[in-house]
Amino acid sequence: MLVQITTTPPLAELTLTAEQPWHHIVPGNPTVLLLLEGSRIYAFPEGTALKANELSDLLAETARQPPPVRFERQPSALSLNIAQSCNLACSYCYADEGRFGGEPQMMSLETALAAIRRHISESSAKAVSVGFIGGEPVLNRDVLHRSVQFASREAERKGIEITFGITTNGTLLEESDLKLLRAHRFAVTVSMDGDRETHDQLRTTRRGQPSFAKAIARISPLLTQPGLANIAARVTVTRRNLDVSSHIDALVAIGFSEIGVSPLRTGPDHSLCLRDSDWSSLLSAMILAASHEWERARISKLPLRFSNLAVALKQLHRGSSQTLPCGSAASYVSLSAEGRYYTCHRTVGDPSLELGDLKSGPSVASRRRFVESRHVENQEPCRSCWARYLCGGGCHAEVLQVGRGGCDYIRGWLEYCIALYPQVLTHRPDLLAT
Amino acid sequence: MKRATSKKPISNSRIVPLNLPAQMERQTLGNPVTTRLESAIANCYPGLEADIRNLDRRFFPGLVFSFVSSGDPDDPSPNGAKLTDVDLADPDLTSPPPDKEKLELLSNAISSGQAIFLDALTADGVRISLRNEKNQPYDWDVAWRLVRSLRAGKLSIELNTRPSWPTVQHFPMTLVGSRRKYQDESGQISDAYHPGELTQSLCSPWQHDFRDCGCSFWASNRPDISLPARPAAEHAEDPVIWIRWDRFARTPPKKTVDQNRPFEIDTYEINERWKDLPFVLENRERWDEYLASPEEPRRSVLDEKNVKGELRRLAGIEQALALEYLYARYSVRFGDSNLTPEEQLHADFIAHELLVIAISEMTHLHWVNVLLKELTNPPNAKITGPYRPALKVSPVVPPKNRKTRSTPLVAAIDDFIAAEAPSGTIDGQYAELLELFTLRKYPQSLIGLVERIIADGVTHHSRFCEIKSLLARYPGRLVRDLKDLKDGDPSYALFVKRYQELIASLDQAYRSGSPATKAHELMIGLDQKITEQARRKKPRAVPLVEIALKKKEPQKR
């Protein structure tokens, strides 16, 4: 059930730093106009520009309303931190090697099953999802397997669809795990950082041993025979490995067909986090990688493998328009190993973002308070940014920790994708289908 | 229908909506595209989606005609375009209308029961009478055809009463105006037409007048002949005509209309039993619930074990085409100062294009060999046995395994276009390889090579089409007649030797993976010799294909 979220009272107390933009023009061929309301995209006729009076007429025609928040009374997505511990000790890990600042901890089977039971029985959605994260979730293999089986049975009994997710470093996957992933609709995200050299620099075991070879050996059989699973590689880009193109190439060579990258903003080793001076280099690297990828896709008629690009294009096509960056607290909550709900997996252990325990369930009031406070119209400088309904204001956990950085990077990337969109629409409309 | 939305639609028609929400919010002028005259099945018999006669009824702003017929050959007087209404509110009339008095007069005349007909039209200085040489009015269809043939623009019309007596005041009457512009630039039909007016005389397969329609022109959603509903074990594949009672084609049709009539649904029966006409899906009548047949699981048409053979075959075709294109090139009068400067320009252009395409085929030959070699070696070993360069000319080329032959450009150009046609011939065969490579997750570098070959094919095709149009523009001028060098001529044997050297050198380069520098030099030398032959006083062509086919590829090592 969706509940309309109102944006009072903090909104009323804020004064605008600048006039709120309701449109944005991206020069190119053709020049593209984005109307923020509904994320509508238009092209000007070739060789002409929008006249000033036309623009004011257009804007007079938009109602200037932010899109509604999709707030589910019972979140349809849940993640379980089944292992707050990890066999690797990646230098940039936000989760403090899985421990989230505390002691290593494993979720008990009782906690996992109780959370799943509540999640499925109370949800009014037709489809729910359950994610397994950590740490390295495979460390708690028994709970992982039994949770999936239990959740599948419960969902079937209720007659709703269920999908699963897992974020893993891949190094501990055994044949029985692969069997499990193949047999269910699993979105498998494997943390890989590019070629062997880069990967092994950043992703080592606690004893400093490299992990690349191990991860590849374990994940390759799944890449060859994925079954029902969908496998994607996720690259964490630190300020030492900004060459996005080479990461994509390296992971394609291994056999990944979906590769996403995300920049490191927070982490225990500050020397790896991107700084203000790095964002323009990352933007260039992203655009270079995307241009290569598009050129290849345009000629070859094959799918896009660079998922940042693929997803952005699909969202632009669909007119994705949101006042929040993700479903955190609105449609998604995360459960810590000890059985406490948080706004997402990134905020596990932060008492200010705790939403309740297993007994009470995630508090609707707390969730709503969080969502209202995080509404993009309540953020600065987001309120005065043309990209606010495409970006949603940036990852809550990161913003709360280190503030907003790299906004120019986000705008630059969006501008690149908006300018590319008409070409994709002309040459490869199939890439835009969802 | 407009969907409920909180967002306001954009009315600026200069900007083009791109993404889905922009398209959904677009406020379009005019009717949906499926109802536009240019996309409708619109004729006048009476038409399926629009009856075009209804446009012409209002061809002259302010007046409404009907195209009528007495149906009696002996009484043509009520035939033609009859004035049925005067519409002073017509939006295409200026206000006040220049001939306001005449229009009011006409309106009164109709009201008082006078029959007024269109007698003549004058447009572009030409007067067209709506009467034949015996001064009898044309029937409705001829009158309508004449109105239909008018262009939008200035026009004067003559109206007269029927029967016409010289004593009737004001008649014949002439009105000056213009033929209505039926649609504006955006496709919107003039507001003069009322909703439903264009479709008012339509019939449909569900209406009884269609029963006797003679045009055999059917709406695409209900074909008149389709396969019978299942189960129809015996006659499942025998087409059934919609109008027959027997929906399973068990009774064969009779020879004449009259004999068939008892087996057919009658006009009044259609009114009663229209619900008995089933929907047609996938060319079959359906009563039961329709379930789409499941999609075939995706699989490659090419088997992995055939890859080697397929690559060797494709290499042969690439070489064959390269030779055919090169041969055709020597029949072009490039660098010929006897041509006019314009012709010279085009001849040089054609020769250059042919060379570029031939080089591209040679590159493909190389790439196919790279594929063969890569797939022979670990870690990509998909092919058994050691790598042997594929340098044998294919005796046949696509489409339809046409014989490889040396043919001058003019005679060959259609074959070249056919060989490079997208989605059918060579690129289709590479597409099968690409599908297999992709499905089996072959290395990206190999997939990339196949993709590039496919992309090249498209440009070859468009280049050949351009060459064809240039040849047609200067018939016989841009090419020269060449006689083939005969086997037995002393220089023939020399060319055979040179060609074999060239292939041997390529063989070596492909095996070792080193640059084909020597082969390149040999090719340039050959090109010079062949050009010399073509420019001799008695010009000779060197039949490259036959020379290449003459001896088998040398087996070194």
Blueprint of the fold:
The complex is a heterodimer of chains A (434) and B (557).
Chain A: E1 2-3, H1 10-13, E2 23-26, E3 32-35, E4 40-43, H2 52-61, E5 71-72, E6 77-84, E7 105-106, H3 109-122, E8 127-134, H4 141-158, E9 161-168, H5 175-183, E10 186-191, H6 196-202, H7 212-224, E11 230-237, H8 244-254, E12 259-263, H9 279-300, H10 307-318, E13 332-335, E14 340-342, E15 354-357, H11 364-374, H12 388-391, H13 396-402, H14 407-427
Parallel strand pairs in A: 6-8, 6-13, 8-9, 9-10, 10-11, 11-12
Antiparallel strand pairs in A: 1-5, 2-3, 3-4, 6-7, 13-14, 14-15
Chain B: E1 16-17, H1 20-25, E2 42-43, E3 50-51, H2 53-56, E4 63-68, E5 80-86, H3 100-111, E6 116-123, E7 126-129, H4 140-148, E8 153-161, E9 173-179, E10 225-226, E11 240-241, H5 257-260, H6 267-273, E12 279-281, E13 284-286, H7 307-330, H8 341-376, E14 396-397, E15 402-403, H9 409-419, H10 426-439, H11 444-473, E16 483-484, H12 490-512, H13 517-534, E17 540-541, H14 544-550
Parallel strand pairs in B: 2-3, 16-17
Antiparallel strand pairs in B: 4-5, 6-7, 6-8, 8-9, 10-11, 12-13, 14-15
